[in-house]
Amino acid sequence: MQTQWVTEAANGYGQTIEVTRQLCCRQSKFQKIEVYETRKLGKLLLLDGIIQLTSYDEFAYQEMMAHLPYYAHGNPERILVIGGGDGGVLRELARHREPAVLDLCDIDSEVIRAAKEFLPEMSCGFDDPRVTVHIADGSEFIRRKPGYYDLVIVDSTDPGGPGAPLFGEEFYADLKRALRPGGVVGTQAESPWLLPDVVRKLVDAARSNFKFVDYAAISVPTYPTGMIGCCVASDDKILTVPAALPDPELAGKLRYYNEKVHEAAFAKPQFVSGLLG
Ligand code: SAM
Fold first, then answer.
1. Pocket-testing residue among 51, 91, 106, ligand 1, by greatest number of atoms within 8 A of Cβ
2. Residue of minimum CA distance from atom 4 in ligand 1
3. DSSP at 168
4. Best exposed site among 29, 121, 159, 175 by fewest CB in 10 Å?
5. CATH class of 4-54
6. Residues 88-127: pLDDT tens digits?
7. Are 188 and 228 in contact (CB under 8 A)?
8. In this predicted model, what pLDDT tens digit does every residue of 132-188 receive, in sequence order?
9. CATH of 58-276, one of 3.40.50.150, 3.30.70.260, 1.10.10.10, 3.40.50.360
10. How far apart are CA 45 and CA 35, in angstroms?
11. How far is CA 159 from the centre of its chain?
């Protein structure tokens, strides 16, 4: 079959991936959902034309978004993922035996349905018996559970579209209220190369609410500029050093996260330190 090229174009920047087959193209109430087979990078998921993941490098993002905040906390029992409908962050969290509660709240049940149908290697985390799925806007759901979670991970789409309420100061205040003492949050925090104003704004929103806030860089070749960040925040924990480490069995299976990467992810080039103040 003749191949085609799919281009993500946003914020004055584009990147193009060669695809061999379209597996899914659906319009949900919130966004257009597309899954492709690519020539070199395995499967590709796009929401409203924006790359969410490829099989080639998704492990970098999912492991860092899950395990970095997890080990910054050390032993979270109750965990919530906001967004994350592809299931990748949940898959990583389900590798931990200790948590009793794994909640996921995505606004769009169609993303979860498409992931279960076309991306089983991502969505396998949904099968864990500890998982409860809530279909709701995460910015509203978070207000229903004050003082409940040890760890909240926000794996959202970008600030345009349904993800917009997950980037404001009010949301960070609600995240803080949802935590138990010692709680930690980790949020998808964009790229300082491409969206410096968004990064600055969300780090400021976190700083207005939490005592300890930092920005960890993650190398993901198929995200624009090849990187994305995780903003971690807590009132009680020093986040830059893990409070616990993966057991040897899990450590041997991880492909990106380790203790040294945890610490190194917080090292900042001068322009990023300058941006974050
Ligand atoms: N890692 C991805 C990225 O940044 O490219 C994000 C992946 S995940 C598929 C993003 C999920 O966030 C989507 O399933 C979308 O439906 C969900 N989402 C967007 N806005 C939301 C909101 N306000 N509340 C809950 N989920 C939301």
1. 106
2. 157
3. S
4. 29
5. mainly beta
6. 999 999 999 999 999 999 999 999 999 999 999 999 999 9
7. yes
8. 999 999 999 999 999 999 999 999 999 988 999 999 999 999 999 999 999 999 999
9. 3.40.50.150
10. 5
11. 13
